[in-house]
């Protein structure tokens, strides 16, 4: 069991009433839009990011870009394999390079679909990053740590600061 005070939440679409209700439940709201750039800080952390844009996943990976940090991270969100299948590889590597680079170090398990919500949660997976798989990636993978900017990205699905 995770105590509510250890749960941090952020959604730029939270209304004042929603924020007040969440705080009344003892949950901690992040004070600003981090654009997904939230570090795990050495603790095992679950990120529930269903229906988020690719840039949020990419930013999260960038902000935790080391085998030690990524191995403490679990993401429930859109399938990385699905992202890889739907995007041209040159676009994936140019705009979402951290997703592209970590694919071989990722374990992914698709959540079962429910007949009532086929078009809603059909692409949801659990992702984790086993340390042994991350350590087998080429050392060059870890050398490039430039912050993503999305200058040339045509389909940016992120609410900016």
TrEMBL record:
> InterPro entries, per this entry?
SRR1-like, SRR1L
One Gene Ontology CC term in the entry: nucleus
Coiled-coil-forming residues are none
Query: Where would I find the SRR1-like domain in this sequence?
Result: 5-128
**Which family does the record assign?**
Belongs to the SRR1 family.
Protein name in UniProt: SRR1L protein
Write the lineage as a comma-separated list: Eukaryota, Metazoa, Chordata, Craniata, Vertebrata
Q: Which gene holds the coding sequence for this protein?
A: Srrd
